[in-house]
Design goal:
2 copies of one chain form a homodimer. By secondary structure, chain A is an alpha+beta fold. Chain A has 17 helices and 23 strands. Chain A folds into 3 domains: about 100 residues, Nucleic acid-binding proteins (OB fold (Dihydrolipoamide Acetyltransferase, E2P), Beta Barrel); about 260 residues, 2-Layer Sandwich (BirA Bifunctional Protein, domain 2); about 120 residues, 2-Layer Sandwich (Gyrase A, domain 2), CATH 3.30.1360.30. The mean pLDDT of chain A is about 95. Chains A, B: It holds the Pfam family tRNA-synt_2.
Chain lengths: ~600, ~600
């Protein structure tokens, strides 16, 4: 059994020690990082969350402590009292490397078996092991630092929102299932057997009701839940920074959030972010980048050559346009010397996005190489090169297809080229924020045979497009906006409809009968009879934001106890079976 | 449809206006509190979350605005632009009563039907209506103020904890069911049909693991869940301030929390709280107050007269002691003139706590009135009076029973007397904090025929009592403490066991086989093999704390969207039935 720390108080943390403490008697407590026996002396590196300090034990310093020190092993928990001294051989790799502690007394507070993973930075262990022994994985200094940054980020957000008059108001976790959207996690009710709560996918309806209640400015850092099959960087439970404001329009929401982001990056990373951010309408983002979350750190923009090749000799191009599609390309600057194999690889790559193929024109020192040149007149070929601003050394890459396939495949190809040409990548520390605005209000769902809300059914159409809601719903633009950082959507929101009649028109456009709308959103529609203020807001994926702040590409690195790809926790073995009695009380049974 | 606020910006909030703004042109937005038509003038009181301001519309000010103003009704949402003027007839009841706004332009942003509840302070409407129209109930200024105080309290806690080096770390909501404790809310897993997550009753195990991970100081303001039948002031989901620290003993936890409470009451209410708080061992609290959460704002303490009456002539007293019980009483100072009816009522009252009756001795000006006097010698009677410090005018109230019944009934009687004598009550603003310490580690559960943990199975025994763990477990005191405010437990915690061998002894004392212990808490026991630090912590019921800060006795007043007594939400009608398809995906069915 470990020794008691009775009568003992820690006086300083390991990483706080420096030359300033020389001569002081201190007590530190922490974990053994390593022990080295050098005969007459035993050196122990002791670790706490602030850093590591070296302690030297010796027969001449204190015999009892020295003998005990010989028995300690990695990850033992020690309390050490001693005098701080300058080191004879300073260690420049350690922040505390100028000093060491003379170990004058030692208590072993706790012992440790050999841990199944190394407690060190940048460990390369299997994820399953890291998750099973998460408490040891979290001992690693790089993991600790990430959760410290997460704490700091949440604190800065709360400070900023509070200073700006926002109230953090907690909304329920046990709420009502609303089948629009992703799949809900359900919670059986014991009082009403056969009935269920749902865990919230977001506090959307509640935050709108809080505006109706006159709270004026609301925010919350809040857990949300989606029972979806997990892709990389998705977790079944995730955290959102949720914001809503009354008496505002798009500019107000954007202006507030730019200041929030600026403050966040300044206080957490000491990085200066210039505001305002660039804004780009959705259609422009699609046309120039093939994406509604473009990475604007580099060019390689899409070029529309449809009008140039409309009547050209290459049937693939001609047919694509004739059947309502489009022909567009990217000028891969300076890539004319890509080998055939590499170009084929890019061709395969765009096929995964639905493209049927990738046409190319390589402009090599006066000579033009292209498998499609033979189908084109010189005028047509020059027309393409001119439109795409092709210069010697460039490689023109072209896709002809339905417009959404062209966008998707060229948008992905652009990113692939960006990575290949090292325009983006782990060493690129640039931060480029962008607002994408004027999203379509609706998009046609072929499967359902109706329009569905692109953002959600409460999103306000742009005034200019209101009359199109009944005549040409697909063309209505919304007061919706996403905030994009380096090609990742980190947040999004909209101004909401606050008018019952307009809300009814919206439900009609979605193909809902009013009965169905009331069945699903009745309490919101009821509430909106009683003086709803104009309002709008935004929500950030907080985990994602913290990934940027910590420089990790793995969402599990910024969550203390994440789930694996099966939404399970190998450490606690959740989910697990439960007593039959529990199910009986809930009035449910398990299907065989 | 309401008018747009395009081109319009709010320049100030209603409640912020004062003489300082006279002559300024302002734009305010808010809800119509009331409208008064005085022929040539229309007065509108406009409300936002900061307060109310009067606006005057007139034909001579602006004809269009004046005509529109005649159409507005209560709870319409308006945007008004106009010049601030001194009022001819100031209203001293209104903070903005010195001024009014000349209504120079008016937009009706949103209309309202007549709301089903009045939007005013201290509404006396049925709870079911208030919950159904919660968004209107929350418009009432007193409700808004309570949630503003809640926001401020959470902010102060976070500021304080951050300044003191604590990291807020989020723990999972989808976790493992551990049948020890209250009933879990379960969440069926789709990936593993027949398996369930549980919503956390508290992050207890996770915060201990975070200490094991070396985070040193953790806190979280976190939602917790208990599926219990709801008594008054219980909610199925509630919020906890959860705190855990490493390398500490009882004094460290107490000292930190006293500073936290002091800061909280100072910043939220501008009230100075003296620290340190009084500390009282559990046994003393029981003996003096019959309660482990005594209200120490008044006396009326319990007095043990067992030794005085051990061999007296009154059989009820004698028998109680002979069968191992106790005889104790309260001296109700100055209550000798209580009528027979009132004393009978108190007798009935203690019976609800299991007492068989209430003996009494009234000391009226020289004369002693008591139905038990005839069974006692004068010496015995005087012995009782002397021990209970009875003076002329006092009423001595006595219970003889098993000790726990004596404590429960006299503890309750004491509070009842306190209320009756106005020693405590709504007008008493005194705040008396108390630490109750040295709780029993275990208590015997007659139903289960074994000891169960009084706090939880990870609570550290006091060093002095360690050897009793096997020989006399009921006498082992724990390093557990509750923080009590005016007779309500607002938080509690303990130093935890950090030694695997001691933990095994604890499980044995609880009658667990090691197999059972591993089955239930295996991952914690596994973790504790790898160098757990000494640690301990505390958790507050945040909702309860906010009840004190807002001066309400109803927990629903401090939660934006609470559940009713059936754990249901009349507003959203959660819980509700769900699509058969959802249940199929989860592999569960509903029992008929």
């Amino acid at each position: 059994m470990g020794e008691s720390m009775k009568g003992l108080k820690r006086t300083i943390m390991c990483g706080e020690l420096s030359e300033k403490n020389v001569g002081q008697k201190v007590t530190v407590m922490g974990w053994v990082q390593r022990r080295r026996d050098l005969g007459a002396l035993v050196f122990v590196d002791l670790r706490d969350r602030t850093g590591i300090v070296q302690i030297v034990f010796g027969e001449e310093i204190n015999r009892e402590a020295y003998e005990k020190a010989q028995t300690v092993r990695n990850e033992y928990v020690l309390a050490v009292t001693g005098t701080v001294m300058l080191r004879e051989a300073p260690n420049p790799d350690l922040p505390t490397g100028m000093i060491e502690i003379k170990g004058e007394s030692l208590r072993i507070l706790s012992e440790s078996e050999t841990p199944p993973i190394y407690i060190k930075e940048n460990l390369d262990a299997a994820e399953s092991i890291r998750l099973k022994y998460r408490y040891l994985d979290l001992r690693r200094p790089d993991m600790q630092k990430k959760l410290m940054i997460r704490h700091r980020a949440a604190k800065v957000v709360r400070d900023f929102m509070d200073e700006n008059g926002f109230l953090e108001i907690e909304t329920p976790m046990l709420t009502k299932s609303t089948p629009e959207g992703a799949r809900d996690y359900l919670v059986p009710s014991r009082k009403f057997p056969g009935n269920f709560y749902a865990l919230p996918q977001s506090p959307q309806l509640f935050k709108q009701l809080l505006m109706l209640s006159g709270f004026d400015k609301y925010f919350q850092i809040v857990r949300c839940f989606r029972d979806e099959d997990l892709r990389a960087n998705r977790q079944p439970e995730f955290t959102q920074i949720d914001i809503e404001m009354s008496f505002v329009d798009v500019d107000d929401v954007i202006e507030l959030n730019e200041r929030l982001i600026q403050r966040l990056f300044k206080e957490v990373l000491n990085v200066d972010i210039q505001i305002p951010f660039m804004r780009m309408p959705y259609q422009e983002a699609m046309d120039r980048y093939g994406s509604d979350k473009p990475d604007i750190r580099f060019g390689l923009e899409l070029v529309n050559i449809s009008d140039v090749v409309e009547n050209c000799g290459f049937k693939v191009f001609r047919d694509a346009i004739a059947s309502g599609g489009s022909v567009r390309g990217i000028n891969a600057k300076g890539c004319a010397d890509f080998g055939r194999k590499e170009i084929d690889r890019l061709g395969e790559y765009v096929k995964t996005y639905g493209a049927k193929g990738l046409a190319w024109i390589a402009l090599k020192g006066g000579e033009i190489k292209s498998p499609i040149a033979k189908f084109l007149t010189e005028e047509e070929l020059n027309g393409i090169i001119e439109r795409m601003e092709g210069k010697t050394g460039d490689l023109l890459l072209i896709v002809a297809d339905e417009l959404d396939v062209v966008y998707a495949s060229l948008g992905a190809l652009r990113l692939e080229l960006g990575r290949k040409l090292n325009l983006i990548g782990p060493d690129n520390k640039e931060l480029k924020f962008l607002w994408v605005t004027e999203f379509p209000l609706l998009e046609y769902d072929k499967e359902e045979g109706r329009y569905v809300a692109k953002h959600h059914p409460f999103t306000m159409p742009m005034e200019e497009d209101l009359e199109l809601l009944e005549t040409d719903p697909g063309r209505v633009r919304a007061k919706a906006y996403d905030i994009v950082l380096n090609g990742e959507e980190i947040g999004g929101g909209s101004i909401r409809i606050h008018d019952t009649k307009l809300q009814e028109r919206m439900f009609k456009a979605l193909g809902f009968t009013m009965e169905k709308a009331w069945e699903r959103f009745g309490f919101l529609l009821e509430a909106f009879k009683f003086g709803p203020p104009p309002h709008g807001g935004l929500a950030y994926g907080f985990d994602r934001l913290v990934m940027f702040l910590t420089g990790t590409e793995n969402i599990k690195d910024v969550i203390a106890f994440p789930k694996n790809q099966n939404a399970a926790d190998p450490m606690t073995s959740a989910p697990s079976d439960v007593d039959e009695k529990q199910l009986e009380e809930l009035g449910i049974c398990i299907k065989e």
